[in-house]
Amino acid sequence: MYSVDESRLKVSGTQAAPEGITNPPIDDLLKVADSKYALVIYSAKRARQINAYYSQLSEGLLEYVGPLVETKPNEKPMSIALREINEGLLTSTPTDG
Questions:
Q1: Which residue ranges of the chain lie beneath pLDDT 50?
Q2: What is the pLDDT of residues 30-53, one digit of tens each?
Q3: What is the DSSP letter of 23?
Q4: CB atoms within 10 A of CB 41
């Protein structure tokens, strides 16, 4: 049996503030998408567009649309995409396949 020294788990005066999939909550995001699978595809496509937007800025091209929400420093494209989906700024059209 292993024992855990809980005093070593605490960092002086700081508290974790997780972002990303916990903010916005998954339950809120699932109201927009039909399933978890659809949500993953939906958010991944948008995150790739956001990533491409940032990549093209240095080249002077404007093919992709940038973030539709205010971003924080060092925020990942997936977190931005999930916040856009949660705020209803994107629309998804199902395709037959």
A1: none
A2: 888 888 998 999 999 999 999 999
A3: B
A4: 13
> How far is residue 14 from each of residues 9, 17, 22, 60, measured CA to CA in Å?
11, 9, 19, 41
Exposure class string for 23-40: b at 16+ Cβ within 10 A, else e: ebeeeebeebbeeeeebe
d(CA 43, CA 84): 9
- 63: tokens are 């093919």
Q: How far apart, in Å, are the Cα atoms of 61 and each of 2, 49, 56, 67?
A: 56, 13, 6, 16
Which stretches does DSSP call E strand in 56-95?
Answer: none
Burial (CB < 10 A; 0-12, 13-18, 19+), residue 46, is buried
